[in-house]
Specification:
Distance between the termini: 12 Å
Largest sheet: none
Order of helices and strands: HHHHHHHHHHHHH
Shape: globular
Radius of gyration: 19 Å
Helix content: over 70%
Oligomer: single chain
Length: 293
């Protein structure tokens, strides 16, 4: 593959991480006027429909087995996002939350050990202490009175680890755009159904909240996944996996400028430790990149 194509793919994926970081901002603003589950349910259903329109030709010849497998992953995604949006709604620090959720990368091999009896690579055992200590610094920055939102964010990290394992083990012969559209649609229907049961829906929505909702749906979800699909088709998964670690970094930076968030010294140290853990867990991919350079 030509060097110019590699550079193009990496720039696109960096843009994807920036959009993902903005997604935290858009979502937090939208939650000021929308119930959490209702917000995520409608957001994902619309985003899934947009992806369907964008890739209609890839939906031809779908078989029930593939749809069923993708739907199961969608249910796990729905549960994961239920934890994420609850943490986002209740939490006070987006940067901290983003780094906690990013622990899902480190947890993937450990979940694989639980689900498939696979032995985690040595890099995970090296990364795990960094992750645990980093999580401790984030959660206990102000003494023992940590935010309960951190528990929801950690639940989202565990859920994402299960989701990634299911994706990697499923023998789904379908375009990634189709897979993403099905996942988003199923997750959206699940979250919207739970919202009808547990939440009081708003009678009206302000123009400002509607604008943030559309931004989170069309820009941070639909456009993000379209660009991610395109970018990953131009480069190796190892490159993409390392670049995607930038999402919590962008989220923390945007939260500082947008919401004037600040972290204590312990929280900054905890974020750094978790970032190190993410890089160590990706060590095999990083070495591959250096060998190809």
């Amino acid at each position: 593959m030509k060097q110019g194509v590699h550079v193009k793919a990496e720039l696109i994926l960096v843009l994807v991480t920036i959009l993902a970081g903005f997604g935290w901002i858009f979502s937090k603003e939208a939650l000021a006027g929308l119930p959490p589950l209702f917000f995520m349910g409608v957001r994902f259903m619309i985003a899934g429909f947009v992806l369907f329109l964008a890739g209609q030709k890839y939906f031809r010849g779908l078989d029930w087995k593939g749809i069923k497998q993708a739907s199961i992953v969608g249910v796990v995604m729905g549960i994961t996002m239920m934890c994420w949006v609850t943490g986002l709604d209740q939490g006070t620090s987006l940067g901290v939350g983003a780094f906690i959720v990013s622990l899902g990368v480190v947890l993937v091999p450990l979940v694989a050990r639980f689900m498939f009896k696979e032995r985690p690579p040595m890099s995970i055992w090296v990364a795990l202490p960094f992750a645990i200590v980093g999580l401790g610094f984030l959660a206990l920055n102000n003494g023992l009175n940590f935010e309960f939102a951190h528990v929801y964010f950690f639940g989202a990290a565990v859920g994402s680890a299960f989701q990634l394992n299911l994706l990697s083990r499923s023998s789904m012969r379908m375009h990634v755009l189709v897979l993403t559209a099905i996942q988003l649609s199923v997750a959206g229907v699940l979250l919207f159904s739970l919202s009808l049961i547990t939440e009081t829906l708003p009678h009206s929505i302000s123009i400002g909240v509607a604008g943030w909702f559309l931004a989170s749906t069309l820009i941070a979800t639909s456009l993000r996944f379209l660009l991610q699909t395109y970018g990953m088709s131009l480069t190796q998964v190892s490159h993409a996996a390392v670049i995607m670690n930038l999402e919590p970094v962008w989220t923390a930076i945007f939260a500082v400028f947008w919401f004037s968030e600040s972290m204590g010294g312990g929280q900054v140290f905890g974020c750094c430790l978790i970032f190190v853990a993410m890089l160590v867990s990706r060590w095999s991919q990083i070495k591959m990149i250096f060998k190809m350079a």
